[in-house]
Amino acid sequence: MNKTTVGSKVISFRNLQNFKLKKLNDLCKIAKTTTAKAVGPNWSAAYAIGLDITKNHIGLIYTDLSKQVLEHIRIYKSFTDTEEYYKEVTDTLKDFIQAYHIPEDKIVGVGISIPGIVDGDNNRIERSHVLNLYDVPGERFGKYIPYPTILINDANAAGRTEIDSDRIKNNIVYLSLSNSVGGSVIMGDIYSGNSWRSGEFGHMIVAEEEGTCYCGKKGCFDVCCSALRLAELADGKLENFFEGLEQQNAEYRKAWEKYLSYLAAMVGNLHMIFDCVDPYAQKLGEVSSISKKDGKLCAHAKDPISSGLALENFVPANYWSDYDGDVLLLGAGGSTLAMSVYFAQEKFKANVPKHIIIANRSEPRLESAKAILDGLHPQIKFEFVHNPTPEENDKTLASLKPHSLIVNATGLGKDAEGSPFTNSCQFPQDSLVWEINYRGDLLFKNQAEKQAAAKNLYVEDGWIYFIHGWTQVISEVFHIEIKGDLLENLSRIAKS
Questions:
Q1: Cα angle: 275, vertex 279, 283; to 5 degrees
Q2: Measuring CA to CA, how many Å separate 148 from each of 6, 88, 142, 181?
Q3: What is the three-state SS of 199-267?
């Protein structure tokens, strides 16, 4: 049995016809009745083992012809390129087989996933930076394993799992974020490329200023979004980083925001691989969900829709043509961009705010927003204001007309304590105030509520925005309409 055959059996099990079993009874169980014979697949006719090798762990799974993972384990074991290591891995494999009573005569082979570039034609590791291996034959890993073995890149192994799960029928791009960054391109099957480097997204350039990658290039995605980037801030433990993030550690929050910005940029770059990208995703260069319809994958940016639905929940019809108020958007991130795109839709005709001010403490963010929004709508004047301090935001607030809309899209009040304004701020008369957060200290909302009676303010929190945010994604992905009573019921359940 050659390696290619083992590969189709061990890794895929996609086509049962590839298995040339000697007897029909090896594949089918036949139940005799008085009137008919019932024939069904015998999933236990063959088994395969999956062995995942990483720098500090090994993982084992086994599956039958149903392609379902029947059992799995993961244990700590540091990789060393030694005979002792390969013998110990084999012993662990044998113990796993015995522990779960896997019939040895029905094991067709072992698929070994490796974090590195694997030459599938020659069953050889071309290079693995994580394991510090170069030009290593696959036989080294399978030397003591008493079954046929084949190597596969770890991200491609994960991608193939998606194919065999029957969740994916056509094309997908799989992005793997771990201690190294990789991926897989699936176009009906794994697309490996001419030199087995397809899907090496970790070595696409994202930000040269972030330093040199182990490959020698500057600013690789691996440098920007490896899990190690976050873990190194927290004694090398990723779980410590996320615990600190939950506890509002300012350094961790800053690192996390940067990480997410690089991730968003990469997803935006990868959207060209999809069959379709909705206009909002194209305009904003971001993706919030991916759906499948009619055999195609489509990338979506749902925030302009969800923020728009939330605004329509409390902004009266014809508000802008009736009152001609200003809009002050505090923060220059994704929510502000989404709301700006929403306001600029042609369907509103003359009912648009004539003056939208975007205030932010970071100049680069403002420049990025300006590049996207400048000239978006002929009747809307966008003004981009650099306000490093709350006192400067107070001055901008004081310049607004009555009947304006003021939105806190900074994250202050949820991601971090505080408000973009001081307690001395003065909201304009008869205005709408929207705190897009729904949890946290919500100081911005409290400041507005203290002036609500005297200034005739309407103050809204971010709950309905949150509800529309995730229900819009669910609607798109599962192709179901969520509105009316169903939306209200989901909101009620989420609050309980």
A1: 115
A2: 7, 18, 8, 29
A3: CCHHHCECCHHHCECCCCCECEHHHHHCHHHHHCCCCCCHHHHHHHHHCCCHHHHHHHHHHHHHHHHHH
C-alpha gyration radius of the chain: 28
For helices 363-373 and 334-343, angle between their N-to-C axes, nearest 10 degrees: 30
| Residue 337 neighbours by CB under 8 Å, 6+ apart | 284, 303, 369, 372, 373
**Other beta carbons within 10 Å of 324:** 14
Is the whole model's pTM more than 0.70, yes or no?
no
Distances (CA, A) of 42 to 26, 30, 62, 108, 267: 7, 10, 16, 15, 42
Taking the CA atoms of 425, 429, 435 and 436 in sequence, report the sign of the dihedral they define. negative
Span 112-154, pLDDT tens digits: 998 888 887 788 888 888 888 888 888 899 899 999 998 888 8
CA 168 to chain centre: 17
Q: Which residues are registered as beta bridge partners of 276?
A: 298
What is the C-alpha separation between 199 and 183, in angstroms, rounded? 5
Specify the higher pLDDT residue, 364 or 336: 336
> What's the burial of 217, exposed, middle or buried (CB within 10 Å: 0-12/13-18/19+)?
middle
> Which residues are paired to 125 by β-bridges?
118, 136
Q: What are the distances in angstroms from CA 109 to CA 65, 86, 126, 453?
A: 13, 17, 22, 74
The SS3 of residue 120 is coil
Residue with tokens 């639905």: 309
pLDDT at 185 over 90: no
Domains assigned to the chain: 3-164 (3.30.420.40), 171-290 (3.30.420.40), 314-461 (3.40.50.720), 466-495 (no CATH)
- Mean pLDDT of the 307-332 span: 94
Please list the helix, strand and coil fractions of the chain in percent, rounded to the nearest 5, in that order.
40, 25, 35
**pLDDT, tens digit, for every residue of 463-472?**
999 999 888 8
Q: Are 117 and 128 in contact (CB under 8 A)?
A: yes
Asked if 196 and 244 count as a contact pair (C-beta separation under 8 A), the reply is no
